[in-house]
Amino acid sequence: EAKRTGRGRMVAVSAALRAQWRDRRDVEGDLRRAMECNEITLAYQPRFSTTDLSCVAVEALARWTHPERGSISPEVFVPIAEQAGLMPLLGAAVFEKAIKQCSIWQRQGLSLSVSVNVSPAEFADTNLVPRLLTILKKYRVDPNLVEIEITETMAMGDFESTQEQMIALRSAGLKIAIDDFGTGYSNLSQLSRLPYTSMKLDRSLILDITSRDSSLDIFRAVTGMAKALGHVTIAEGIETQEQYDALAEIGCDEVQGFLFAKPMHPDAIPAVVARSRFDVADLKKA
Ligand code: C2E
Ligand code: MG
Ligand code: MG
Ligand code: MG
To answer: GO terms for biological process (predicted)?
Structure first.
């Protein structure tokens, strides 16, 4: 399926809404209730180093299981929460859950980085960094273990405020990833002046690298550029061994995708970390 952004995504969201709810106020009501009743949980998807395939980080991904409608994708409910003005609240709940989980892993002796996605409304909040720091202090989690993911499109918003917010996050010790890179229209010279630490290359850039030479060339060029700028390169959405082989060959630093691990319950993470240096082939059988 194609990655939808902007207008296209809104059309997709409205279609999903029409199919599932008669009135958008119902959705908002449901979402408010879901947040109060803890129906929103987090799944964690491991990320691995291409050096030794050790698990180096996990990404927190919001999950909503509606009592009647079943599971609803964050691609649907995050934009709705954003429009309804609920995202600052939802985002704060997500961050606190992820940090609490990180502190549990920390106590178990796992030094795992946790990545949290931040929405435009949260990123625009000038109080974001102090709020995050309060939560990190509360759970005694090292800010170095936390990475904030903001999409390429968000990073290309108001340059001055993006830069300010990123500087604040970095001085507080948090890491920053540019998410979904390759789906927006970046001004590369502006992007290069922002102090992020890693670049997540979108699945759409990886989809046909094994069937089209030009796709492979593009991927190689983008990886080379990110590395030249000193960023960690992360490939998202790897589903096949062939894709992995091509990325590893190019020198991509880290990988995330269904080939290695799907988003999972936090209790399943320690076993993945323990299985450190394994063979990709073994994973496919698992
Ligand atoms: P994202 O941040 O780019 O997250 C990666 C998405 O790709 C996840 O979808 C993940 O399950 C999926 N994925 C990972 N590996 C593969 C693969 O090999 N193949 C395929 N086809 N997909 C793969 P998910 O969990 O449905 O989340 C979708 C998007 O919703 C996220 O994209 C992110 O933009 C947003 N999102 C999720 N949780 C949150 C949250 O807590 N806050 C905010 N602001 N946004 C969130
Ligand atoms: Mg992400
Ligand atoms: Mg992404
Ligand atoms: Mg995304």
So the answer is: signal transduction
CA distance linking residue 233 with residue 248, whole number of Å: 11
Q: How far apart are CA 4 and CA 8, in angstroms?
A: 5
Tens of pLDDT, residue by residue over 19-28, are 565 566 677 8
User: Ligand 1 pocket check: which of 78, 116, 148 to mutate, most ligand atoms within 8 Å of Cβ?
Assistant: 78
Alpha carbons 143 and 169: distance in angstroms, whole number: 9
Please give the average per-residue pLDDT across 119-140, as a whole number: 95
- pTM, full prediction: 0.91
For residue 4, the model assigns a pLDDT of: 45
What are the pocket residues of ligand 1 if the criterion is a CB atom closer than 6 Å to any ligand atom?
45, 61-62, 73-75, 78, 91, 94, 117-119, 149, 179-180, 203, 236-239, 256-258, 263
CA–CA dist 91, 31 (Å, integer)? 13
Diameter of the chain measured on Cα atoms: 50
Collapse the DSSP code of 231 into the 3-class scheme (helix H, G, I; strand E, B; otherwise coil) and give the result.
Answer: coil
Whether the complex's predicted ipTM surpasses the cut of 0.90: yes
Ligand 1 closest atom vs CA 118: 44
State the distance from the centre of ligand 4 to the C-alpha of 118, rounded, in angstroms: 11
Q: Measured between alpha carbons, how far is 47 from 211 in angstroms, rounded to an integer? A: 25
**Rounded Cα–Cα distance for residues 261 and 197 (Å):** 23
Q: What are phi and psi of 160, to 5 degrees?
A: -60, -50
Pocket residue to mutate for ligand 1, from 117, 209, 258, 283, most atoms within 8 A of Cβ: 117
**pLDDT greater at residue 15 or residue 269:** 269
**Considering the chain, what is the average pLDDT of its residues?**
88
Residue listed under structure tokens 């700028």: 229
